[in-house]
Structure formats: C-alpha cells, structure tokens
Glutamine--fructose-6-phosphate aminotransferase [isomerizing]
Amino acid sequence: VDRVLRGRIDDRFATVRLGGLNLDAREARSMRRVKILGCGSAYHAGQIGAQMIEELARIPADAEPASEFRYRNPVVDPDTLYIAVSQSGETYDTLAAVQELKRKGARVLGVVNVVGSAIARETDGGVYVHAGPEVCVVSTKCFTNTAVAFALLALHLGRIRDLSVADGKRIIEGLRKLPGQIAEIMELEDHIATLAKEFADAKSMMFVGRVRGYPVAREASLKLKEISYIHAEAYPASELKHGPLALIEPATPTVAIVPRDDLLEKNRATLEEIKARSGRILAVAHEPQEKADDTIVVPRNEPELDPVLMGIPLQLLAYHTALALGRDIDKPRNLAKSVTV
Ligand code: F1P
C-alpha cells in the first residue's frame, strides 16, 4: 500500500497526482458514467472502486464481470468512461472486453498491476497498482492495492468535479493511516489462525455485507473457495430475507462484515436474524459485536476506506483455513495465474 500511495498525494491542495491517467479535466467533467470491468478479484475490487467513485466524485458508476460484458453485445456509450481492472494485465476475458470497447470507439483506462502487460498496452491510460509480483496464483495484495488505487482515482475525479477540499483532506489523512493500520491487522494473525481451525470443518459458509461490506463479502468468499475448496456464498445482507436465510443453520457459519457506518444498526439486526437460526457468526467490525460468536476487530478509518481494511483479515482467514486443511495454497486446483482462454 505504501508503494501505490508513494509520491501521489499532494497535501497542500488535498488532491492526488496520477501521472499516466491521460484524462484531462474537460473529459473528467463531461463524463456521465463510469463502468468498471474485471474478472474474479479484479471485478470485486472494481465493485469497491465503483462505490468510491459514486461517493467521492458523485459520478454514477458500476462494475460488471468482463467475462459477461464481452458476450452480451453491450451498448457502448461515448459519455461513459470504461475502466478495465487486472492484476496480470493478461486475463483474456478482460482484454477481449477492452478490445471490443476500443473497436466501438470507447475511451478505456486501466487499473493494472503488471507494467507493460497486454491490458496496460491496449488501454488509453490509467493507474498502475504497484503491488509487486503476486507470488501465489490468487490475488491478495493486488486486490488491496487496487482498492487503494480506486480511492486515489475517485479522489482525483472528485476534486475535478465537486468534492470539497475538506472531504479531500479527510480521505487523504485516511489513506496515510492505511499502512500502519494494515500492520495492526497483521498482528491479529494468530487469533485469525485459531478461528480458521474452527471453520475448517464447515461444508459451506455464508458471507454477508451491506453496501461497502458487500464487495468485501464477495471477495472473502472467493478467496475461501479458491484456496480451501469450501463452498461459500456471498450475499448482500438485505437479500438474505429474500430466500437465502433458509440456508442458515448451525452447520453453516456466517462471516458478517459490519463497518461502523450509518448502516450499523441494520447490520446488527442482520446478526440477530442469523443468530435466531442458531447460525455461528464471525463478525469483522470496529468493535466486538454482541450477537457474534467472535469478532475480528479492525482499526477505524474513514468509512469510504473500510473495504480496504476489512478484506485483509478475511484473506488471512481463507489462508489459515486452507492451511488447516492441508491445501496447496500457492497452487490451488483449477486456477491459472492469468486465465487466457
Ligand atoms: C483475474 C483472476 C484473479 C484470480 C485468479 C484468476 O486475474 O480471476 O482474480 O485470483 O488469478 O484470475 P487478473 O485479471 O486480475 O490478473
């Protein structure tokens, strides 16, 4: 995270410098929508990015799996800024989506880790994530850094459009706190490893989160599936009552993402609904949750940056669950470093 922030924050003007972005102020002001495309963890980081762009720059934004977008003959809109997200920069579905967009005359930026990769070359500009090489197949630090890169981009767009200087300063201070807070979360590893041993027996797990917590829930469930092979579902917390509550029972533990935002009370009510069905609950929150059996307590930052911090203990949870099950974590089955077909 230090690396993605380095040299990019300008305290004096409460803004950020994004050298290779290649998007001038006139273009940034005239765009009507942002559409983010990526696969797997890159898609989930894109969901976080879309929320940050809506919150900090007030531009309507959404994320879609590139692997869906490329097959559905989408309407390509000249007033939409498209952003392709990829760790490797080689994922074929994402590259194909970029090429299709370029053919139709769209402007496409990249949020990419590997410098000079195919997606970095094909896009019109963008932000490098500077997460360094991902030594294992699954994306971990790149997911975190991509979320931070989106915070920088959202801040930049927000300052060009209508974000107040005070808000800019608040987010910049929050960004500066991240590396120290991530180090604090890493101190929780032993506690998380102990919790993971309890989850290693689960046949299935449920991950729930609302708004900022939802992409974190999705990514956490993907990490668990990828490396431990435990079945996991991720649901927006408010969707539970539309069917999936039927799955909650003692043998299906739930991980609930409970940030301290204006949805805190709603999130606590969700914990109650799950508890009432005797489901075991692990919460990720800023303070211990009464209804949960255990809470992983993460430091508080600006609410917009919660997804950056709250994903990390759940990467550790997936890692230690897989370790407890004796899985080959760096080479999980059926997963390639960059999916090229
Ligand atoms: C996308 C992705 C990763 C996943 C695995 C397979 O890769 O789905 O999120 O962990 O490596 O590919 P990328 O486009 O971000 O390189």
In short: The chain has two domains: 2-183, 187-324.
